[in-house]
Design brief:
- With 436 residues, the protein is α+β, with helices and mostly antiparallel strands.
- It has one domain: Outer membrane efflux proteins (OEP).
- It has helices at 2-23, 29-39, 41-56, 117-183, 189-224, 246-256, 258-278, 327-393, 399-433; strands at residues 25-27, 67-83, 92-113, 231-233, 284-298, 306-319.
- The strands form two sheets. The protein has a four-stranded antiparallel beta sheet with strand order 2-3-5-6, with no helix packed on it. It has a two-stranded parallel sheet with strand order 1-4.
- β5 and β6 form a beta hairpin.
- α8 (327-393) runs antiparallel to α9 (399-433).
Length: 436
């Protein structure tokens, strides 16, 4: 009774899943990658970094605009004077002397020359903007790589579900046939029981795979920000690197890999730091201008009733640090070390990526060879299964032999799909290495 209950439960679940699949929309890999690019939070944060880098490259941060300031002030003074003189001068004692003071000034300054530091800083900011864009591209590629891996894992599981659906139908037909044979005394109860067990096992395998598919979909939703899993994926795909050669891929790797390009850009930024350190003590020349107006109104008790001054000042100022206590030398040495470190990182990454690409290429070629062999294996197992099925239908083969032939065909087909999907996943990883 427990086996019958499991069988009925499995068939009901399969029926419900089948009805759901007919209503689900098909999600392509291109739609997945577009959703990741549009919605993913990591990419949104990276775009904020680009916005910040763009601010640093704006005209207001280039150092070519003059500075202008206005200052003003007003004051009230209440003073007293008491003076006692020698000789015959009369003493002086005046209290509550009020005075009002006011001033207005405008000042401006403009850097005429700094030894090229301003130009280098602006070029470095532009390179930093390029690096921020490269980092965005790299994050996008990493997320696309992760999404593609999950997507093709769903593809593989769905293909295996299709295989198991076909196997289940054969097992159900075999179970019916076993019952009929048992009624006519051609087989014993063990054959009937084995057929039922195989139906249940196939049903449970499908349920397990469908559960895996659901979990993969939720993982994919974390990257695309989809809210539900009511979709299926496109199980049709082609292998795109079958006619490629490793030399062309290596050249493409050097040209397009975003990690290498980012490291080269980082090396460029370090070069700017070294050049800036070399110009740290360059002379600076500034043009200055100012206009000031001062006003003072005194009380009648003061000797001076009104005082007002105004004036325009224009000039040039220069500054040149002849000795800085060795700071420029320290900056140069640190920048040189950073430059050498950045170059080592670049060479190390090139070697690491070349090794990874060669490993992937060898695995890819092995998969292509395996696909050819597995395709022949499928044909052989199909012929064997059809022969065993015919003999089983005529009562010349046991249910165990029939089941074994069925499993051999299923394994051959499943292995073919698994190897083909594995080859596609290798292509996805190579796409990432090649900056696609």
């Amino acid at each position: 009774m427990s086996r019958i209950f499991i069988l009925v439960l499995g068939l009901l679940c399969l029926s419900q899943m089948s009805n759901l699949l007919t209503a689900q929309s098909v999600l392509s890999i291109d739609e997945v990658l577009s959703a990741v690019e549009a919605n993913n939070y990591d990419l949104q944060a990276a775009r904020q970094n680009i916005t910040a880098a763009e601010v640093l490259t704006s005209k207001y941060n280039r150092g070519y605009m003059p500075t202008l300031n206005i200052n003003a002030g007003i004051a009230y003074n209440l003073n007293g004077i008491k003076a006692v003189y020698n000789f015959n001068f009369p003493d002086l004692n005046i209290q509550n002397i009020q005075a009002y003071n006011g001033n207005v000034g405008i000042g401006s300054s403009y850097l005429l020359y700094d030894g090229g530091q301003r130009k280098l800083r602006n070029e470095k900011n532009l390179s930093s903007l390029d690096l921020a864009k490269l980092q965005l591209d790299n994050i996008n590629q990493v997320l696309g790589f992760n999404a593609s891996q999950i997507y093709y894992s769903i593809v593989q599981a769905m293909l295996n579900v299709d295989l198991l659906q076909g196997t289940l139908e054969i097992s159900k037909e075999r179970s019916k046939r076993a019952k009929t044979y048992y009624e006519y005394g051609k087989v014993n109860r063990v054959d009937v029981s084995n057929a039922k067990v195989d139906v249940v096992r196939d049903s449970l395998n499908i349920i397990t795979l469908n559960n895996d598919i659901e979990n993969f979909k939720w993982q994919l939703n974390q990257l695309t920000l989809k809210k539900d899993t009511d979709y299926v994926v496109d199980t049709t795909f082609t292998l795109e690197y079958q006619s490629s050669n490793i030399a062309d891929l290596q050249s493409k790797l050097l040209e397009s890999n975003t990690e290498l390009i980012s490291l080269k850009k980082n090396l460029e930024l370090v070069d700017y730091d070294l050049n800036l350190a070399n110009k740290l003590n360059s002379p600076q020349i500034l043009a200055n201008g100012a206009y000031n107006l001062n006003y003072q109104k005194n009380s009648p008790r003061s000797q001076l009733d009104l005082n007002r001054t105004n004036g325009l000042n224009l000039g040039l100022s220069a500054n040149w640090d002849i000795l800085d206590g060795g700071q420029r030398k320290v900056q140069e040495q640190l920048a040189t070390i950073d430059q050498q470190t950045a170059l080592i990182d670049l060479k190390n990454k090139e070697n690491e990526l070349f090794t990874q690409l060669n490993r992937l290429w060898n695995s890819y070629q092995n998969n292509l060879l395996t696909l050819s062999i597995e395709n022949q294996n499928i044909q052989s197992n199909k012929e064997n299964f059809e022969l065993v099925k015919s003999l089983y239908d005529n009562g010349q083969q046991t249910s165990v032999e029939f089941r074994q032939a069925q499993l051999n065909l299923l394994n051959a087909q499943s292995q073919y799909y698994n190897v083909r999907t594995a080859a596609k996943l290798i292509e996805v990883e190579m796409d990432y290495l090649l900056g696609k």
